[in-house]
Every structure is written in C-alpha cells, then in structure tokens.
Model the fold of this input.
Amino acid sequence: MPEIKNYIAVVDLGGTKILSAIINQNSEIISIAKKSTKSKKKNETIFDRIIQTIEEALAAKNLNSSQLDGIVLGIPGSLNPETRIVNLAPNLGLKNVNVAEPIEKHFNTKVLIENDANLGTLGIYHFEGKEKCKNLIALFVGTGVGAGIIINGELYRGKNFSAGEIGHIKVREKGYKCGCGNYGCLETEASRTAITRIINEEIKKGKKSLITKLTEDTKVIKSGILAQAIKKKDKVTIKAVNYAAEELGLVTGNLINMFDFDCVVFAGGVMEAIGNFMLPVIKEKAKETALKSNYKNTKIFISHLKDDAALLGGYALFKNS
Amino acid sequence: MPEIKNYIAVVDLGGTKILSAIINQNSEIISIAKKSTKSKKKNETIFDRIIQTIEEALAAKNLNSSQLDGIVLGIPGSLNPETRIVNLAPNLGLKNVNVAEPIEKHFNTKVLIENDANLGTLGIYHFEGKEKCKNLIALFVGTGVGAGIIINGELYRGKNFSAGEIGHIKVREKGYKCGCGNYGCLETEASRTAITRIINEEIKKGKKSLITKLTEDTKVIKSGILAQAIKKKDKVTIKAVNYAAEELGLVTGNLINMFDFDCVVFAGGVMEAIGNFMLPVIKEKAKETALKSNYKNTKIFISHLKDDAALLGGYALFKNS
Done:
C-alpha cells in the first residue's frame, strides 16, 4: 500500500473534457485544471493534453511534478488495469494502446489506469458509503448508463475487467437499436439519449412541449434543460423522465433480488440535474419489483460527489494499490 | 477451520424428501438415507424426521452419532446462517424458528444451516469449478428457479442473506402471476411450472401433443416426461422448452454484461433431465445478448453433480466454517 507523502494527480478523461486534479495526502482536492479532449492543433496527441492539464493543475498551486507520488487515469472504455492496455475507448479514439507509459515516462512516477465508472464507484464507496455499504452498486446515468460494483468493500471487476456494463442489459424485447448493435438495452430506455428521443417522438406526434422554447436544438437536450422543463411542469418531459425512472427502478428491484445489495447509488449528469425528481419513482418501482425479504434495509440514494466521485476514487485506488 | 476427523452429516431438506448423507474426511459420500418430508404420524415433527434420516444413514454403515464432527442442514427458504433462524421456508412449514438447536441438542455436535441453493453452489464451485471459476453463478431450474453466487472464491450472501433470488427478477412487463405476488418473474417463464403451463395452454388451444399420452395428469409434468417428449420430437414440448431456454439465455447474457462472471452453471431437476437440449439455445441467446468484450472466456455449462451438489456443498461449508 503506497503512502501518499506529497500529492497525487487524478485525471478524469471524458469524451468532451479532460479534468486533472491534484489531491493531497488528506484526500483534499487542492487544484483542478480542465481542457477539451479534442485538440485544435494538428500534431497534439491526447497524451500531450493529459500532460498539459496535470502540469497546469500543479502550476496553479506552485507545485512541480517531482512532488507527485503517482498519477491515476480514469478512462471511459474497456481496459486491463494490470497490463495498462486500453482495449477500446471509442470516445477517446483509443484502441489497444498502453496509455500509462507515455505519462509515466514524462513524469517519472507510477501511473495506474482504471475504468471511469469504477473510479466513480470507488469514490462513492470510500467517501459516501463505506460505513453503510459493504456491497454496493453505483449506476451512472448520463449520455449512456454504466455501473460500478463493490463487493465486500472491494472493487469487483470481473474476469475481463468488464463488470458493470449495465447499460447493455436487454430490458425490452422489441426496443430501439443501441450503439452496441443490440436492441432494447437499458441505455436505449433510460439514458439522457433515451429521454431526448422520447421527447422528440412526442413533439413529432404534435404534442406541445416547453423543450422547444428552452433549447434551440431539441436533438441534444442537456440535463439542465430537462431540469428547467420539469420545474415548469412540462408534461412531455415529465412523462419521458418518469418512463426512464421506472426502467431504472425495475432494474434496481431486479438487482436487489439477485444481489441483495446494501446500497444502490445513482450518479452521473442526469442524476445530478434531476435525480431528486426521479428518485421517488425509482424507489417505488424498485420496491414493487423486489421481494420484501431483499428490499429490507436497502439504501437507495443519489451521490452528492458529482465530478469529485472519480477524482476521489482515483485517490482511493492509489492508496489501496 | 474445523478439521473433519471422522464424519459429517449433510441434510438436504426438500419440500418432498429429506436426504441425509454421511461424508468422510475425503469428501466421499459413504451413506445416504431418504424419507418423505411430510410424516403420516400425528405427533412426528420435521425435526424427528431429520434425526431419523441421519441415524438411518449412520446405521447403514455401522456408525454412531458420536463419530459425527458436525451436521449441515440445507434449507429451501430464507434464513440467517449466523443466528440459525429460518425466517421462512414455505415448503417445510417453517417460520421464524431455530432449526439447528433441536438437532444440536440431540446429537451433541455443531450444526450449521444454509440455504439449499447456496449449498448446491458451494458444491459446484468446490467440486466442479474451483480451477476455472473464481466468480460463478449457479442457476437451479426445477419447480422454481433459484441461484447461488460465488465471488472471489467465496459464497456471496448479501445483506439479508437473500442474494440469489433470481427466480423473482421481473422479465415480462405483462407476465403471469408468480407465487411471490408479482407478475412476469423469471420463475413464471422458465421453470418446470412455466413449461408445464405453456404446454397446457397449447393443448387447450387444440394443439396435439404426446404429453397427453406420456402422463395421466398434464397439470404436473415431471422433467423425465419432458425428456421423453423431446426425444420423440413433440413439437408442443419443444416449443415450450425452447421458450424457457431463451428466457434463461437472455438472463445469462444480462448477468454476463453486469458481472462478467467466469462461469454460469446450470443445475436442478429440469437441467438434469433436459439440460443438454436446452444448453445450445441458452448459449445462443446469451451470446446474442452479451457484449463481445464480456462474453469472451465465459464458461456456460451444466453441473454433473445432481443431488450431490448440495451434499458436497455442505461438506465444503463445514470445512471452511
């Protein structure tokens, strides 16, 4: 178990933005730097941009890279944390590549990599749920739906390090086509993309919705816009969001029946924006679906950590590595 | 970890029969005694019958109870293995009762209790899957559908000791009413009871089936009868069994997506009788449902242990207790 004497850097690599944080030995995030993931410069790689954000975050606190005990990279894709090879991260354009080595070489410090949902789950477990959640599943609802699993206080990764692909469980026999090639995945029914599709279908049918006034392009409805529409009691939005919440509640109930989890935690952009509206619907459906014997004592709640979940998860991963 | 110097007794308590085995220190089942669960004698309790079968199994090998290092009871119901209270075992008529104490008092030896699916899973893991299955789920398909889960080589029980209630995950929005009070549970779609119902519906619609010739009462179709009908290429039976297999395959695919298990093992009366017919359908549907990244390296197979699974699981539980 490596001691953190000075600082570690945790990088949350998203499809849109790269977020680098410097965290001290007391798990305090003392500096954050942000960059868009895609560069406008021709010869600049994603590795260059990762290095730049880390250096910017260090510089903001007058630190230098020799003060780093290690770096953790959170990656949206399938990977092997042991070989540090990213098998596929479509949003980053990475395939079968060791992402740790170039960073390690530059900073001359230990680099760990982990799936981003797993990092977020570690953060939620260690900083929000450790006392009450020995066995926990965290569901991240945003553009897609992902999950991370803690069993007996340890991150559960599965044989191919691919556990948590809950977005691709089939929930509708005749559902919409999913990015994975299959039909009727949870992601096509309960993500922000799904809610957006349902709202657009209703508008197309002639239903009136405030969404058309709140955003210029209804094809990409941000979570904040959904929150505004709900606040203004827009029926079309409320119906679509309730549908997604019921699907999530059904899956929650089934998870409780199968795994009798202590805690089911919701996180991600959609949950940050409209989780308080969705949670009662999720809970009601979960309670209806689960056996009384299993639902008993289950805690279902929304994470308060937001972006910090993955950053603090990186800290926890490094400390326990 | 208690040493087994002499023998242990493992009792598999079913709704129909009580099976008691004597197992030696080399995990060999050296004696078995059987009794129907329900007594015809007025004042005879289930505890009396458990004691009798253990004593019969001992006597058959000229052993006496002082040679028992311990007893394990496998119970079809919800229970707490720590307090040894059975919360509810409907088929045994037990509710909120300590089943271990009367047996312990009689034999003056340590008594452990465990859910029967968990015992079967422990048997499968330790005697069929230990080398290849670090993380395993065993699905028991019979009158109902149950499961047991092994994570990192350990039985996973969940917070209320109720993990594995896979028979009650909701798989059909508008399904049949289940014994649990809910609708469209896996158990109403993929158990022997479900297959029986589907066959009867077809017969009622006027479809011709050999089932009516193979059994007098089509309301309770035993697994052996299903095997005979399949062998004789009875279309109605094959269609019903394929439907159940597809449901199991879908759930298998979803489990692989979520938990990236090393092994998914099928067991129970239906699988013993017609598992070889069902397995290709299950695998095909699972492969279609699961992400390639997760399905990779998953072993899906039928247990060969039959009744021995729970008995050997009792041995493993005792040895590791």
